[in-house]
Amino acid sequence: MSVHLHTALSLASHGVPVLPLREGKVPFGNCPACAKNICGGRPNMKTPGPCTCPNPCHGWAAATTDPNVVNSPTWARAWRDAAGVAYHPGGTGLTVVDLDNAEAIAWARASLPGTRTVPTTRGEHWLYRGAMQSANAVRPGVDIKSAMQYARWLGPGTGTMATLPDVVRALIVKEPATARPVAVTVPATGRGGECPHRTPTYLDRGIAMAEQRITEAREAVHATVYRTFLAVLSTHGRCGCLTETHTARLFTAAQAKGESPRHCTDAWTNALTTLGLSHV
Length: 280
Hints:
With 280 residues, the chain is an alpha+beta fold. 35% of the residues lie in helices and 14% in strands.
Protein backbone atom coordinates (compact mmCIF):
# COMPACT_ATOMS: atom_id res chain seq x y z
CA MET A 1 0.00 0.00 0.00
CA SER A 2 1.40 3.40 -0.97
CA VAL A 3 1.99 6.02 1.68
CA HIS A 4 -0.56 8.32 0.00
CA LEU A 5 -3.25 5.63 0.01
CA HIS A 6 -2.50 4.86 3.66
CA THR A 7 -2.85 8.57 4.53
CA ALA A 8 -6.09 8.85 2.55
CA LEU A 9 -7.66 5.84 4.26
CA SER A 10 -6.71 7.20 7.66
CA LEU A 11 -8.25 10.59 6.89
CA ALA A 12 -11.41 9.03 5.44
CA SER A 13 -11.84 6.97 8.61
CA HIS A 14 -11.96 10.25 10.53
CA GLY A 15 -14.61 11.75 8.25
CA VAL A 16 -12.30 13.80 6.03
CA PRO A 17 -13.23 13.60 2.29
CA VAL A 18 -10.09 12.81 0.30
CA LEU A 19 -8.88 12.51 -3.29
CA PRO A 20 -5.51 11.82 -4.98
CA LEU A 21 -3.37 14.61 -6.41
CA ARG A 22 -0.99 14.25 -9.33
CA GLU A 23 2.21 16.18 -10.03
CA GLY A 24 1.64 19.90 -9.98
CA LYS A 25 -0.73 19.71 -6.99
CA VAL A 26 -3.75 19.23 -9.26
CA PRO A 27 -6.47 16.53 -9.29
CA PHE A 28 -6.54 13.76 -11.84
CA GLY A 29 -8.44 14.77 -14.96
CA ASN A 30 -11.86 13.48 -15.90
CA CYS A 31 -11.98 10.12 -17.65
CA PRO A 32 -13.16 10.02 -21.32
CA ALA A 33 -16.74 9.30 -20.27
CA CYS A 34 -16.76 12.44 -18.10
CA ALA A 35 -14.64 14.72 -20.30
CA LYS A 36 -15.94 18.29 -20.28
CA ASN A 37 -18.62 17.14 -17.81
CA ILE A 38 -20.70 15.51 -20.55
CA CYS A 39 -21.79 13.07 -17.84
CA GLY A 40 -23.57 15.83 -15.95
CA GLY A 41 -20.80 16.39 -13.45
CA ARG A 42 -20.91 16.20 -9.69
CA PRO A 43 -22.44 19.41 -8.31
CA ASN A 44 -21.33 18.64 -4.76
CA MET A 45 -20.25 15.79 -2.58
CA LYS A 46 -23.53 15.03 -0.86
CA THR A 47 -25.72 15.11 -3.98
CA PRO A 48 -23.49 13.71 -6.73
CA GLY A 49 -26.04 14.19 -9.47
CA PRO A 50 -26.38 11.96 -12.54
CA CYS A 51 -22.72 10.99 -12.78
CA THR A 52 -21.99 7.56 -11.29
CA CYS A 53 -18.44 7.23 -12.63
CA PRO A 54 -16.28 5.28 -10.15
CA ASN A 55 -13.07 7.07 -11.18
CA PRO A 56 -11.51 9.95 -9.18
CA CYS A 57 -13.04 12.47 -11.60
CA HIS A 58 -14.37 16.01 -11.20
CA GLY A 59 -11.69 17.42 -8.95
CA TRP A 60 -12.84 18.39 -5.46
CA ALA A 61 -16.25 16.76 -6.05
CA ALA A 62 -14.58 13.34 -6.22
CA ALA A 63 -13.49 13.61 -2.58
CA THR A 64 -15.02 10.85 -0.48
CA THR A 65 -14.94 9.34 2.99
CA ASP A 66 -15.94 5.90 1.72
CA PRO A 67 -12.97 3.54 2.28
CA ASN A 68 -14.35 1.14 -0.35
CA VAL A 69 -14.07 3.89 -2.95
CA VAL A 70 -10.71 5.16 -1.75
CA ASN A 71 -9.26 1.64 -1.86
CA SER A 72 -11.14 0.51 -4.99
CA PRO A 73 -9.47 -0.95 -8.10
CA THR A 74 -10.64 2.06 -10.13
CA TRP A 75 -8.68 4.41 -7.82
CA ALA A 76 -5.65 2.11 -7.61
CA ARG A 77 -3.89 3.51 -10.67
CA ALA A 78 -4.38 7.07 -9.45
CA TRP A 79 -2.81 6.20 -6.11
CA ARG A 80 0.15 4.55 -7.85
CA ASP A 81 0.76 7.75 -9.79
CA ALA A 82 -0.26 10.14 -7.03
CA ALA A 83 2.11 12.85 -5.80
CA GLY A 84 -0.01 13.74 -2.80
CA VAL A 85 -3.37 13.68 -1.04
CA ALA A 86 -5.98 16.41 -1.09
CA TYR A 87 -9.11 16.90 0.95
CA HIS A 88 -12.32 18.91 0.69
CA PRO A 89 -12.28 21.34 3.66
CA GLY A 90 -15.90 22.42 3.23
CA GLY A 91 -17.00 18.79 3.19
CA THR A 92 -15.67 18.32 6.70
CA GLY A 93 -16.82 21.69 8.03
CA LEU A 94 -13.48 23.48 7.77
CA THR A 95 -12.01 26.56 6.12
CA VAL A 96 -8.36 26.86 5.12
CA VAL A 97 -6.80 30.29 4.88
CA ASP A 98 -3.93 29.63 2.47
CA LEU A 99 -1.07 32.07 3.14
CA ASP A 100 1.38 31.92 0.27
CA ASN A 101 4.31 34.01 1.51
CA ALA A 102 5.89 35.72 4.49
CA GLU A 103 3.97 38.94 3.94
CA ALA A 104 0.65 37.09 3.98
CA ILE A 105 1.64 35.27 7.17
CA ALA A 106 2.56 38.56 8.81
CA TRP A 107 -0.82 39.98 7.85
CA ALA A 108 -2.63 36.95 9.29
CA ARG A 109 -0.75 37.15 12.57
CA ALA A 110 -1.73 40.78 12.90
CA SER A 111 -5.33 40.44 11.70
CA LEU A 112 -6.72 36.97 12.40
CA PRO A 113 -7.31 35.01 15.60
CA GLY A 114 -4.75 32.31 16.25
CA THR A 115 -5.71 28.80 15.18
CA ARG A 116 -4.17 25.53 14.02
CA THR A 117 -1.43 26.10 11.46
CA VAL A 118 0.16 23.77 8.91
CA PRO A 119 3.47 24.66 7.20
CA THR A 120 3.39 24.64 3.38
CA THR A 121 6.12 24.87 0.76
CA ARG A 122 6.05 28.67 0.72
CA GLY A 123 3.82 29.66 3.63
CA GLU A 124 1.16 28.29 5.96
CA HIS A 125 -2.39 26.96 6.06
CA TRP A 126 -4.51 28.36 8.90
CA LEU A 127 -7.43 26.04 9.68
CA TYR A 128 -10.73 27.17 11.20
CA ARG A 129 -13.88 25.29 12.23
CA GLY A 130 -16.74 26.29 9.94
CA ALA A 131 -17.29 26.28 6.19
CA MET A 132 -17.76 29.18 3.78
CA GLN A 133 -17.57 30.03 0.10
CA SER A 134 -14.11 29.59 -1.37
CA ALA A 135 -12.30 32.40 -3.17
CA ASN A 136 -8.84 33.01 -4.60
CA ALA A 137 -6.70 36.11 -4.18
CA VAL A 138 -8.88 37.74 -1.54
CA ARG A 139 -5.80 39.81 -0.78
CA PRO A 140 -2.14 39.50 -1.85
CA GLY A 141 -0.94 35.97 -1.19
CA VAL A 142 -4.17 34.82 0.46
CA ASP A 143 -6.69 32.24 -0.81
CA ILE A 144 -9.75 30.83 0.95
CA LYS A 145 -10.28 27.08 0.52
CA SER A 146 -13.50 25.64 1.90
CA ALA A 147 -16.70 24.76 0.02
CA MET A 148 -16.26 23.48 -3.57
CA GLN A 149 -12.46 23.56 -3.31
CA TYR A 150 -9.67 21.21 -2.29
CA ALA A 151 -6.55 21.70 -0.21
CA ARG A 152 -3.41 19.61 0.01
CA TRP A 153 -3.05 17.44 3.09
CA LEU A 154 0.29 18.40 4.65
CA GLY A 155 -0.22 16.99 8.11
CA PRO A 156 -2.43 17.75 11.11
CA GLY A 157 -0.61 20.95 12.03
CA THR A 158 -0.14 22.46 15.46
CA GLY A 159 -2.23 24.58 17.77
CA THR A 160 -5.88 24.64 18.79
CA MET A 161 -8.36 25.11 15.98
CA ALA A 162 -10.51 28.22 16.40
CA THR A 163 -14.01 28.92 15.13
CA LEU A 164 -14.16 30.62 11.73
CA PRO A 165 -14.22 34.36 12.51
CA ASP A 166 -16.27 37.00 10.73
CA VAL A 167 -13.08 38.72 9.59
CA VAL A 168 -12.31 35.70 7.39
CA ARG A 169 -15.86 35.51 6.03
CA ALA A 170 -15.65 39.21 5.16
CA LEU A 171 -12.58 38.65 2.98
CA ILE A 172 -14.67 37.43 0.07
CA VAL A 173 -16.89 40.51 0.03
CA LYS A 174 -14.76 43.31 1.46
CA GLU A 175 -12.43 44.46 -1.30
CA PRO A 176 -10.08 47.44 -1.58
CA ALA A 177 -11.22 50.30 -3.76
CA THR A 178 -9.40 48.93 -6.82
CA ALA A 179 -11.51 45.79 -6.65
CA ARG A 180 -14.83 47.60 -6.95
CA PRO A 181 -16.35 47.51 -10.42
CA VAL A 182 -16.31 50.75 -12.28
CA ALA A 183 -19.58 52.63 -12.37
CA VAL A 184 -21.07 52.01 -15.80
CA THR A 185 -23.48 54.28 -17.58
CA VAL A 186 -24.64 53.24 -21.03
CA PRO A 187 -26.74 55.06 -23.61
CA ALA A 188 -30.46 54.82 -22.89
CA THR A 189 -32.68 53.86 -25.79
CA GLY A 190 -35.92 53.58 -23.84
CA ARG A 191 -38.42 56.43 -23.79
CA GLY A 192 -36.71 59.25 -21.92
CA GLY A 193 -34.33 56.75 -20.38
CA GLU A 194 -37.15 54.78 -18.75
CA CYS A 195 -36.50 51.06 -18.48
CA PRO A 196 -38.71 49.24 -21.02
CA HIS A 197 -38.65 45.98 -19.07
CA ARG A 198 -41.69 44.69 -17.28
CA THR A 199 -40.77 45.28 -13.63
CA PRO A 200 -37.65 45.78 -11.49
CA THR A 201 -38.10 42.13 -10.51
CA TYR A 202 -37.27 41.16 -14.09
CA LEU A 203 -33.85 42.78 -13.76
CA ASP A 204 -33.23 41.32 -10.30
CA ARG A 205 -34.11 37.85 -11.57
CA GLY A 206 -31.73 38.28 -14.49
CA ILE A 207 -28.87 39.35 -12.22
CA ALA A 208 -29.55 36.41 -9.88
CA MET A 209 -29.49 33.98 -12.82
CA ALA A 210 -26.22 35.51 -14.03
CA GLU A 211 -24.68 35.12 -10.58
CA GLN A 212 -25.75 31.49 -10.52
CA ARG A 213 -24.30 30.84 -13.97
CA ILE A 214 -20.92 32.19 -12.87
CA THR A 215 -20.99 30.38 -9.52
CA GLU A 216 -21.77 27.02 -11.13
CA ALA A 217 -18.99 27.26 -13.74
CA ARG A 218 -16.64 24.29 -13.35
CA GLU A 219 -14.28 25.10 -16.19
CA ALA A 220 -13.52 27.93 -18.63
CA VAL A 221 -14.37 30.46 -15.92
CA HIS A 222 -12.91 33.38 -17.90
CA ALA A 223 -15.12 32.60 -20.88
CA THR A 224 -18.19 32.01 -18.71
CA VAL A 225 -17.76 35.36 -16.97
CA TYR A 226 -17.40 37.19 -20.28
CA ARG A 227 -20.41 35.45 -21.86
CA THR A 228 -22.50 36.16 -18.78
CA PHE A 229 -21.54 39.83 -18.75
CA LEU A 230 -22.35 39.97 -22.46
CA ALA A 231 -25.78 38.42 -21.90
CA VAL A 232 -26.64 40.84 -19.08
CA LEU A 233 -25.54 43.88 -21.07
CA SER A 234 -27.30 42.75 -24.24
CA THR A 235 -30.58 42.59 -22.30
CA HIS A 236 -30.22 45.47 -19.87
CA GLY A 237 -27.32 47.57 -21.10
CA ARG A 238 -29.15 50.07 -23.27
CA CYS A 239 -31.95 51.20 -20.99
CA GLY A 240 -29.81 52.58 -18.20
CA CYS A 241 -31.38 50.33 -15.55
CA LEU A 242 -28.11 48.68 -14.48
CA THR A 243 -26.62 50.24 -11.37
CA GLU A 244 -23.27 49.88 -9.64
CA THR A 245 -24.99 47.57 -7.15
CA HIS A 246 -25.89 45.18 -9.97
CA THR A 247 -22.39 45.19 -11.45
CA ALA A 248 -20.91 44.72 -7.97
CA ARG A 249 -23.00 41.56 -7.54
CA LEU A 250 -21.66 40.17 -10.82
CA PHE A 251 -18.06 41.13 -10.03
CA THR A 252 -18.33 39.56 -6.56
CA ALA A 253 -19.58 36.30 -8.05
CA ALA A 254 -16.74 36.28 -10.58
CA GLN A 255 -14.09 37.05 -7.96
CA ALA A 256 -15.42 34.23 -5.78
CA LYS A 257 -14.54 31.91 -8.69
CA GLY A 258 -10.98 33.23 -8.73
CA GLU A 259 -11.25 36.07 -11.24
CA SER A 260 -9.16 39.13 -10.40
CA PRO A 261 -10.71 42.62 -10.27
CA ARG A 262 -8.75 43.47 -13.43
CA HIS A 263 -10.14 40.44 -15.29
CA CYS A 264 -13.65 41.42 -14.25
CA THR A 265 -13.21 44.98 -15.47
CA ASP A 266 -11.63 43.81 -18.73
CA ALA A 267 -14.46 41.32 -19.38
CA TRP A 268 -17.08 44.00 -18.69
CA THR A 269 -15.32 46.53 -20.95
CA ASN A 270 -14.93 43.97 -23.74
CA ALA A 271 -18.62 43.11 -23.50
CA LEU A 272 -19.52 46.80 -23.76
CA THR A 273 -17.29 47.18 -26.80
CA THR A 274 -18.71 44.08 -28.48
CA LEU A 275 -22.24 45.44 -28.08
CA GLY A 276 -21.33 48.92 -29.26
CA LEU A 277 -21.94 50.47 -25.86
CA SER A 278 -19.61 52.99 -24.25
CA HIS A 279 -19.07 54.96 -21.06
CA VAL A 280 -20.59 58.42 -20.98
